[in-house]
Structure formats: C-alpha cells, structure tokens
Design a protein that fits this description.
This protein is α+β, with helices and mostly antiparallel strands. The chain folds into two domains: about 1-130 and about 385-450, Uridine Diphospho-n-acetylenolpyruvylglucosamine Reductase, domain 2; about 145-225 and about 280-380 and about 455-510, Cytochrome p450 (Orthogonal Bundle), CATH 1.10.630. The chain has helices at about 30-40, 50-65, 75-85, 110-115, 145-155, 160-185, 195-210, 225-230, 235-245, 250-255, 260-280, 290-300, 310-340, 340-355, 365, 370-380, 415-420, 460-480, and strands at about 90-95, 100-105, 190, 390, 395-400, 400-405, 410, 480, 505-510. The chain has a four-stranded mixed β-sheet. Strands 3-9-8 form a three-stranded antiparallel β-sheet. A hairpin with a 2-residue loop joins strand 5 (about 395-400) and strand 6. The termini are far apart. The structure holds protoporphyrin IX containing FE (HEM). Keywords: Heme, Iron, Membrane, Metal-binding, Monooxygenase, Oxidoreductase, Transmembrane, Transmembrane helix. Its EC number is 1.14.14.1.
C-alpha cells in the first residue's frame, strides 16, 4: 500500500486525494481489483454502500463546517479521528462530494486517456449543476457539439497575432502598476500584493476584452472590481441544497435560482450592452478586443456564429475566468520570490540582460526568457489557482482495468498531483530549475496541469502567461520583493473558492537603482 501524508480535512480534494475505504496502488494489484469491483457493479451502486456513503457525508459536513467557519470545537472527536486515521494518498480513489460519487484520478496514464485521447468521445464535458441563471451558455459549461462550436469560434481570438496586438494594451496597465508601487516602495510600506496585482489583471482583462478603462489600480472601490470578485463566488447554501436534495434541481431551475450572483451578472450585462450600443452607433473607435472579435464572427460565420446572448456570456466569463486566476498567480509569484531572494536575483539578471537599463519590455524578448518561464512554471506548480479540474464520463468505459461508470464525475486534484513526491522530488520546495530547458524534457506532461490539458484546456493560457510575465518583469525591473514581519510563512490556504491564501500576502518592496533607458511605451 502506498501510504503518504495524513491529510488536511478541509481541502481533502484539492490538497491530497484521499481514500479512506478503498484504494489503488500505483502498481495495481489487489487493491485494483477491490476498486474495480467497487466501481463496476451497476452504475452508482457505490451510492448504496451504506458505510461509505454516510461516512463521506459526515466527512463533507465537517469540511463544509470549516468552510462556513463553524468552530472546529463542535466536532473535536470526529476531527481527531479524521486527522489521525491512516488516510492514504493514492493514484485513483473514489469519494463523495455531498451525495455525488466521484473518481479522483492522479494516475498519469489514465489522465492522458481522460483528458486527451478520449476527450471528444467520452469525456468532453465538465460537471454542470444547471443552476447557471443567465450564464447558461458560457463556454466553460457548454456541452458536446455546442461547446465545440463555441470553442472553435473563440479560439482565433487567442492566436499569437492577436495576443501581440493586445500586448500593447497590457503595457499601458503594467506601466500604471509600476507607477502605483513607487510611493509604496519609497515609504517602505507593507502592501497586500494582491490588491495591486489583482487590480492590474482586472484592468488589463477589461481593456483586452471590451476596451474599457476601469483603472481599478487607482480606484480600488470601482464597481467593476467588486462585481468581478463576487461573480465566481457561487452561493454555498444553494450548492448545499442541490447537493443534498438533487430532486429539487428542476424546481430550483424553473424558479430561476442561480449559483452565480444575479446582481453581478446584471452589472456586467449593462456594461456590455452600453459598449455594444456605442459600437453599433459608430460613436466609438473600434478596437480589436475580444468583444469585437466575437461580434465580427457573427458576420463571418453567418448562422454558425455566436448569438448576441452567447457573446455576452463569453465576454463576462473571460473577465471572470482570467482576472482572479492571473492576479492569484502574480501574488504567489511575488511571495515565492520574496522567500527565495537568490531566485529573484537570478531572474532580475536575466531581465536586465534581456532589457538593459530598464528598456521597454518587448513581446519577443519576453516570451523567449527561459528562466522567467521556469520561475512562473514552478510557482504555478506549487500554487495552481484552479486546484482541481473535472470531466464527466459520457458512457461506461474501462480505463487501465478500472471501470468508470456512465455519468461518473472524474476529478483531477491538480494541487495534489503537483505535490506528489513520486512525480516531483522535494515537492514542497520552490525550485525553478525543474523547468529548465534540459530538465523539463523529463517532466511528464500529465503531471503538470495548471491550465489543464487537451482540447478542453484553458483557452486563455498563452494570453494569461504573457499578461503575468509582463507585469512580473516590469515590477522586477524597478523593485525587489521582500518578506517582512507581517508576511505569513507558511501560508494557510483558504478552503473556499479558487486556491488562495486565507489571509492576504503581505510584502515590502525595495526600489532598484538601475539607470533607466528612454522609455518609449
Ligand atoms: C494564470 C491564469 C489562468 C489559469 C491558471 C487558468 C486555468 C484554467 C484551468 C485549469 C482551466 C480548466 C482546464 C481543464 O478543465 O482542463 C481553465 C479553463 C478555462 N479558462 Fe483559464 N486560466 C487562466 C487564465 C485564463 C484567462 C486569462 C482566460 C480568458 C481570457 C481564461 C479562460 C478560460 C476558459 C474560457 C476556460 C474554459 C475552457 C473550455 O471549457 O473550453 N483563463 N483555465
């Protein structure tokens, strides 16, 4: 039996895949048979396994109590039991989320089959809780042929040519970011890094998506940032209700309940309608932003183009999906660099060589920086903002001897995968050289999934990487990050929502004294 760390109850899916009652060793064997017999009886036979079912429901209640900040003292004996019981970290395990049975997969060859080889035929979709309100047609929740159609129309917006065009827009915001940090460095203030880096990501996303200038770096109380932050915070009570009482789903759906906050969706709709109306009236100089590219697709593809409603939904989800993930990535990068000053110095040397004397950052130079790429990759390994990805089986299928029943949710615990000691030596260490040109050949592509993999991976991956790298380079041209007594080490993670720290990451900035070149951007 492959016994690894005892697990943290609050993040059991995202931190380590656990399997209290059944398990599969990496090499297969007896436990494979056990799991298989468990999985391959009638579909969802698992639900009927009395002990497992109720054990996991209790387990979930405890986890949710923690999410809801209910005191751990309410359940001291159970906590003790869970924390000391020999949970094992395994490659494949089954579990429950509320009443939903799931298969958690960390086996890289199974991941290849699920995420790539059989993506179109057997695993094209994510779980869809149906209560999506007005966002029912966003690409991330669309299914089958409809998803393929929307994804095909959106893909050309993320070509190198398009990203290069948007690079100039991003630069306006990275300049504002470095300017806003100057007084903070000068006054040696302790800053919440996410306030600045998140605002940059949002402003850059809003400009690239709809050419609107939110300037939330200057105005942190702008309604755009408040609504964007809330948009992906799904309603926990509604999630619990649909989870425990799935028979109520049709009723909730008909009654118009939505997991996404309605007021936020309405806000984004009104912003977008205003922008579209201005464009139709010709009073606005048209930029090639995501919105315009989608509007153009209506003419090019006639009947196969996106409908007006689909355009609105994608425009909203781009900003929501892109801003927090990128802002979180930047905040963790700042934290990792502050904790590892020798890595930061080496990165600054590469930056100073590529863009001497603080020369303006150029697209080609940026995307070709090797050490920068290693640093960003390693930070995303340790802190992947989307800590878990999912697919749903369209039909019953056997993969590597394991039967996956139709409609079973397959979850990939990315955070756990990225810290698996069998795949990553010294998994808790920040070592960018794992991703050096020579070393990265030996990394299994299915062991590293910050953006997912295969046809349904993150559509904005290359765009996000450019946005993140640009901000990091410009900030490090001018400042160094430094830990201070307010910096929490190690970080405690927030068990809710996307991966993020429970309390803000606080750092100081030290201005760098390099003569600057004539800045032309
Ligand atoms: C560092 C930043 C980002 C990270 C870490 C990230 C990560 C991810 C991950 C893990 C997925 C799921 C992949 C899968 O299921 O295999 C995803 C999907 C998606 N991401 Fe990102 N993302 C980032 C930035 C962005 C940006 C900037 C955009 C938009 C411009 C974006 C748009 C999307 C969309 C639309 C999907 C759903 C794709 C589909 O279902 O076809 N993401 N992202």
């Amino acid at each position: 039996m492959h016994v690894k760390d005892v697990l943290c109850v609050s993040r059991f899916i995202t931190s380590r895949t656990i399997c209290p009652l059944n398990s599969l060793e990496r090499s297969g064997g007896e436990s494979t048979k056990l799991l298989n017999s468990y999985m391959s009886s009638t579909p969802f036979e698992t639900q009927k396994r009395f002990f497992h079912k109720y054990f996991m429901i209790i387990f979930e209640i405890v986890r949710l109590c923690k999410i809801l900040r209910v005191s751990e003292n309410l359940f001291p004996p159970l906590y003790k039991k869970i924390n000391t019981k020999q949970f094992v970290c395994v490659c494949v395990s089954s579990m429950y989320e509320l009443r939903t049975p799931m298969l958690a997969v960390m086996d890289v060859s199974m991941l290849k089959t699920i995420l790539v080889k059989e993506c179109f035929s057997l695993f094209p979709n994510r779980r869809n809780l149906r209560l999506n309100g007005d966002l029912y047609d966003i690409v991330s929740l669309s299914e089958d042929d409809n998803w393929r159609r929307i994804r095909n129309i959106l893909t050309p917006a993320f070509t190198t040519g398009r990203i290069k065009e948007m690079f100039e827009i991003m630069k306006q915001h990275s300049r504002k970011l470095t300017d806003s940090l100057r007084p903070k460095a000068h006054n040696e203030e302790v800053i919440n890094v996410k306030d600045f880096l998140g605002a940059y990501s949002l402003d850059a996303m809003a400009s690239c998506a709809y050419s609107i200038d939110t300037d939330t770096i200057k105005d942190p109380s702008h309604p755009f940032i408040n609504h964007a932050k809330k948009l992906l915070r799904i309603s926990i009570p509604l999630f619990l209700i649909q989870g425990f009482f799935p028979f109520l789903l049709p009723l909730l759906e008909i009654s118009g309940f939505s997991l996404f906050p309605k007021s936020c969706v309405a806000y984004f709709k009104s912003v977008l309608e205003k922008v579209r109306a201005e464009r139709r009236g010709g009073s606005h100089q048209t930029q090639m932003d995501f919105l315009q590219l989608m509007m153009n697709s209506q003419q090019e593809k006639q009947n196969k183009g996106l409908s007006d409603h689909e355009i609105m939904s994608q425009a909203i989800i781009f900003v929501a999906a892109g801003f927090d993930t990128s802002g979180t990535t930047l905040a963790f990068l700042a934290y990792n660099l502050a904790k590892n000053p020798e890595v930061m110095r080496r990165l600054q040397e590469e930056i100073d060589t590529t863009f001497p004397s603080k020369a303006p950052v150029q697209y080609e130079g940026l995307v070709n920086m090797e050490y920068l790429d290693s640093v960003v990759s390693e930070s995303l390994r340790l802190y992947p903002p989307i800590a878990r990805i999912e697919r749903v089986a369209k039909a019953t299928v056997e993969i590597n001897g394991i039967t996956v029943p139709k409609d079973m949710i397959v979850t990939v615990p990315v955070y756990a995968l990225h810290r698996d000691p069998d795949l990553w030596p010294d998994p808790e260490e920040f070592k960018p050289d794992r991703f050096s040109k020579e070393n990265k050949q030996s990394i299994n592509p299915y062991a590293y999934l910050p953006f997912g993999i295969g046809p349904r991976n993150c559509i904005g991956m290359r765009f996000a990487l450019v946005m993140v790298k640009l901000a990091l380079v410009e900030v490090l041209q001018n400042y160094s990050f430094s830990i201070c007594k307010e910096t929490e080490i190690p970080l405690e993670m927030d068990p809710t929502g996307l991966l993020g720290p429970l309390r803000p990451i606080k750092l100081k900035l030290v201005a760098r004294s390099i003569a600057s070149a004539n800045v032309d951007n």
